[in-house]
Amino acid sequence: MPEMPEVETVRRGLVEQVKNKKIVNVEILYQNLITGNVDEFIETVTNARITNIGRRAKFLLIYLDNGYTIISHLRMEGKYRVSSDESAIDKHSHAIFTLDDGQMLIYNDVRKFGRMQLWPTATLDSNKSLVKLGPEPLSDSFTFENIKPRIVKHRKDIKTVLLDQSVMSGLGNIYVDEVLWQAKIHPETPANHLTDEDIKIIIDCSNKEIQTAIISGGSTVRSYLDANGHKGTMQDRLKVYGKEGEPCARCGTTIEKIKVGGRGTHFCPKCQVVK
Ligand SMILES: [Zn+2]
């Protein structure tokens, strides 16, 4: 599943390839891709120019010059490709935006879980998918003062709390495991047991982890590719995710995999302690 760093990598690729291009034709080949009326979507998007590509957590925001924005959530397997070659279109291509330079922005989604929604740009903050998102790493609002109360009000395990996108947004299963390993905190620690120091370390590690992940183009754990078709290299840098049975890079103890809140969770039983 693409996580926030992968979506940021996709965003940067799309900025290079489609910013300032005009959409001259739209084909929606899988109607359920669009949240809302498909005909209205096509009518509004056709002949609009893409002014920029933004992102909020794992949502891509395709800003148009007509006052609307396409909110695109890739979910499990959604991908964008930019190509002028018809052979780039296959049975998993669900939306094709033909651009005024002859290129096509093609949305592919094997699992069909991704969604696109058209929304007035002026009221994006009130969109129900975006309004509930907590502060995200590397943003101005990702401060100790903002994050601490969102964490310590929960008695649940910290792994589940960090995955809750209303607490903080942008960290998915891979990066929560990595952050908790970096912070030396056991994933089953009740969130309200964490000290101020623990929370500061979580914030610091989250920023570093996301920064590193963005620089390395995200992780390619399943079939993620960026808009240029490049694979990320982050998976080579992961310390615990997918490393069960291997020695901890810090202490040599065997990494274990357990279920926490229903999610596969990787941790070092020696250097990550329950608080
Ligand atoms: Zn260890």
Automatic annotation (TrEMBL):
Residues 239-273 form the FPG-type domain. InterPro entries: DNA_glyclase_Znf_dom_DNA_BS, FPG_cat, FPG_Glyclase, FPG_N, H2TH_FPG, Ribosomal_uS13-like_H2TH, Znf_DNA_glyclase/AP_lyase, Znf_FPG/IleRS. It catalyses: 2'-deoxyribonucleotide-(2'-deoxyribose 5'-phosphate)-2'-deoxyribonucleotide-DNA = a 3'-end 2'-deoxyribonucleotide-(2,3-dehydro-2,3-deoxyribose 5'-phosphate)-DNA + a 5'-end 5'-phospho-2'-deoxyribonucleoside-DNA + H(+); Hydrolysis of DNA containing ring-opened 7-methylguanine residues, releasing 2,6-diamino-4-hydroxy-5-(N-methyl)formamidopyrimidine. DNA binds at residues 92, 111. Keywords: DNA damage, DNA repair, DNA-binding, Glycosidase, Hydrolase, Lyase, Metal-binding, Multifunctional enzyme, Zinc, Zinc-finger. Binds 1 zinc ion per subunit. One of its GO terms (biological process) is base-excision repair. This is Formamidopyrimidine-DNA glycosylase. It comes from Companilactobacillus ginsenosidimutans. The gene is mutM.
